[in-house]
Structures are given as structure tokens and as C-alpha cells.
Amino acid sequence: TNIIGTLRAAAMPVLYLDWETDDRTQKERVRAICSSATPTAVPPIYYRRQVASLPESAAEIRRIIHQLGIGMVVVDSLAAARGGEPESAEVTNQLFNAAASFRVPWLGIDHVTKAGGADSAKPFGSVFTANRARLTWSVDKHQEADTSWMTVALTNRKSNNGRKMGRIGYRLDFETVDETDPQSPLISILIARTAPMADPELARRGTPRDRIRAIIADRFLRPKDIEDETTLPGGTVRAALKWMREHGEVGIDDDGRYGLLRTN
């Protein structure tokens, strides 16, 4: 079953290690996602409710991986899987060492710090969470109250084995048994690709170049107007426009106004 993206390898069973919720909720979510896919069959995802930390469970998990032919492990979430203080470098390194012993690719879901500015997308706790990871993405979402859909933007923050990818956006539409009840069971989740800059709120949370792309997508503006609308410092705007012009993203007209030539 392929929901989004492009298959680049043979499908293999996945082991989902969950410290956050329960088997019933996980099954409901997977069925809802797969209901809009072709074929609709639920893929082989093996669920395991976790209580002990990942390092404590590592030997049993390795046995399961071997027994079931697992090709990927999902850890949800790293904060709970540590079994110790998130700020501890020792505890964090023990978690990554345990995950490395699985000898299969693994995906760790984590919370982010509440710090502002550039640190707002960093994993909570020890810097070794980001340092030990080979590839990291942050996820922003925007959803209005009393709506059955949301938009999400995925930003590639780190890539050790290649170039970082551009920002990716998706729209998620939720169908429930009773739309008037927020706790109603899910029937389906339809996922469709969208431009992350199409959502003004997500655009505002993007990088300076993301924010500039959003406001000049369909018009030409002078740098001072861009500064006023984005509230970015003048030097940041000028540097971003210079980079975007050198990379063929923006053009400039006879009045010194910049406009977007192409999008990511």
C-alpha cells in the first residue's frame, strides 16, 4: 500500500513501538489512512505497547525483528523511550546505541523544545538527539477550530548523506462517524500533496526564503515592502533575495521589484 511519495525499495514489515497510546487507537488510524489507498489492505505493521525503556527492551526487540523479518522500526516517542531525563547526554546516547543494535532503519518521533527563534524546531532535551540522528525533519501543522482538515509542513533540518530537501506540504482531511463529536471514531484520512506556502500560517513559520516566496508568489514587491510584510530585518531580506536571484528563483523588474519565477 502506497499512501504518499514514491516507493524506492521492496515493502517490508514494520514494528511500531508505542509509549504514547494504545493498540485500538493505532489500528483505527492505520485503517483510516489505508481506506483511501489502492489497494486498501492494511500493510504488515506489528504493534507493541511499550512500558520499559528502549535500552531495557532492546534484546527482546532484536528477537522480534529477527523472528518477523522486520525491515523498519518506529519509536514513538523518544522522550518516553529514553527511560531517563531527556537532557541527559548519557541517557540519550544509550537510546541511540540500543536502536543501532537493531541493524535495520528506524524512525524516532520526538517532541520539540519550547524555545523561540531558531531553536524552536530542535528536539527537546540533549543536543545529542539531533547530533546522533542522520536525517531529521520537523513537522508544523495548522488547523482551525471546528474543521475536519489540517495542513502540515515538513521541513528537512538535517541530512548527513545528501542535500537537504525543500519544504513539503500536505493536506489531511478527516472523515468520522459523527462530525459533531470530536471523539468520534475515524472512518478515513485523505492525504493530498499541497504547497506549504499556500497556508499563510505555515508560511509565517517558515525560513526567511519561505516567507518571501509566500508573499511574492503572485506579485512583484520592492525589498522594503517585503521587509514590512514579513517583519524580517532588511539585511535578512537582502541576503535571501540575493540567494534566490542567484539560484533562479526570483526576477527583478525595471522598478526594482522582486517576483517569484518558480516554486520548489
How would you characterize this protein structure?
It is built from 9 helices and 10 strands. It has helices spanning 23-34, 54-68, 78-82, 89-100, 128-132, 200-204, 208-215, 223-230, 234-246; strands at residues 14-18, 45-49, 72-76, 106-109, 135-142, 149-159, 168-176, 186-194, 250-252, 258-260. The strands form 3 sheets. A 4-stranded parallel sheet has the order 2-1-3-4.
Number of helices: 9
* Largest sheet properties: 4 strands, parallel
Gyration radius from CA atoms, angstroms: 21 Å
Describe the strand arrangement of the main beta sheet, using strand numbers. Answer: 2-1-3-4
Provide the helix percentage: 25-40%
Structural class of the helices, strands and pairings? alpha/beta
Q: In what range is the share of β-strand residues?
A: 15-25%
Terminal residue distance: 27 Å
Low-pLDDT sequence parts: none
Shape descriptor reads globular
How many DSSP-defined strands? Answer: 10
- Please tell me the overall pLDDT: 90
Order of helices and strands: EHEHEHHEHEEEEHHHHEE
